[in-house]
Amino acid sequence: MPNLSAHTFARNLTLTLAASAALAACAGPAQERKIADDPQLMSSRWELTNWPNHVIPNGDNGDPVILNFSNEKGEGRVSGRAWCNQFTAPFSLRGPGRMTIVEAVTTRMACPEPAMHFEADFLEKLQAVNNYTITGKTLELDTLDGKVMKFRAREKVGATAKIKFVYVAAEKAPCSTGVMQTTCYQVREDKKAPWQLWYGDIRGFKPEPGVQYRLRILEEEVPHPPADASAVKWTLDIIVEQELVEYQK
Question: Distance between CA 101 and CA 116 in Å, rounded?
Answer without folding.
Answer: 20
